[in-house]
Known about the structure:
- Pfam families: DUF5703 (PF18963).
- This is DUF5703 family protein.
- InterPro entries: DUF5703.
- By secondary structure, this protein is α+β, with helices and mostly antiparallel strands.
- Helices cover 21% and strands 32% of the residues.
- The chain is built from 1 helix and 3 strands, in the order E-H-E-E.
- A 3-stranded antiparallel sheet has the order 1-3-2, covered by helices on one side.
- A hairpin with a 5-residue loop joins strand 2 and strand 3.
- The longest helix has 15 residues, at 25-39.
- It is flat.
- The N and C termini lie far apart (54 Å).
Amino acid sequence: MTPPPEGNDPDWEYRPLRLPPGVTRLSAAVQLSIHAEFSGWELSRVLLYADGTRKVWLRRKRSTPGVPELLT
């Protein structure tokens, strides 16, 4: 499987995250929940390696700066 298109997708921004083997599943879920709640990230993909390391890709919509309101 290939990793997410980090630089190729104009609508999404991606953030890779590595969780070491000693991190429990519950602790990983709490960390990812914090990223989601306070920074707007959502889970895109998880790879679990034989040694217990997790490679996680988070994604969120790119924010486009809005046009300021015109005073009339």
